[in-house]
Amino acid sequence: MHIPPFENNNKAIIDTDDTRVPLNYFNIVKLQKGQAFEYAVPCYETCIVPATGTVDVTVEGEAFAGIGNRGTDVWDGEPEGVYVPTGAKAVIVATSDDAEIFVAGARYDKTLEPFAVRTDEIDLVQYGSDDTKTHRKIKHILGTKYHDKVGRLLVSELFTVGQGGWSGFPPHKHDTDRIPEESRHDETYNFRFRPGKGFGMQLVQREDGKVGDAFHIVDGSTIILEKGYHPCVVAPGYEMYYFTILGGLSQRSLVQYFQPDHAWQIETIPGIKDMIAKFK
Q1: What is the span of the domain harbouring residue 212?
Q2: Which residues lie closer than 8 Å to 215 by C-beta, 6 or more apart?
């Protein structure tokens, strides 16, 4: 499902217990210098990631200063984040002139410890190629290296490399808990484009082979993925970014099931097996 850009006034875009993606939570918070935003999400662990700007974060009294170093957009610097345990009180204060902050969440019933993820701790993977039209870079904020510190939440930033091309290809899904072949992970995206007038398309293909859905995505679009194979594509001449939230039902490791008709291309896309492994 596509949620077009709108002014959410710091209220959750995907709230707790959403019937479509009950394992996900997503908010976009916009602050000016000195302004504060306070929240606690019962039954969900969360991660605070500034899209732009710099913030100070306090989690149940523990302070994490100077989170985020990006300027005008998500291409202007590297991501940072703060993990907030389930139900914990977090306070975000903008220290730059303006800040736009993503708050990602996943349902989880245990309470762990907060921590910050700094630029030099981001787990980076780049794969694909210009020839295969699948060239992209993934910056894992809460990736595999934090398995022992996070419950069910995976948070990443995905960038197309160059202008135009496919992402999430070959088509894959993760809507059914049938380990080891596939895991149930609800997924939420928020897209950005450079230049900002860029656009793309999110496909959601049905498992039964019948014609699925295609959504016109623009700068600020939110996509929720509760089921189906879901590749996306950006128009020529534009770069695409999407903030990615994954929440697992029974485990944190993501097991993707690739559409059988197209799974052979796993063998043709450079580095894709490394990308798959980084989500496990």
Answers
A1: 9-278
A2: 1, 2, 201, 202, 203, 204, 221, 223
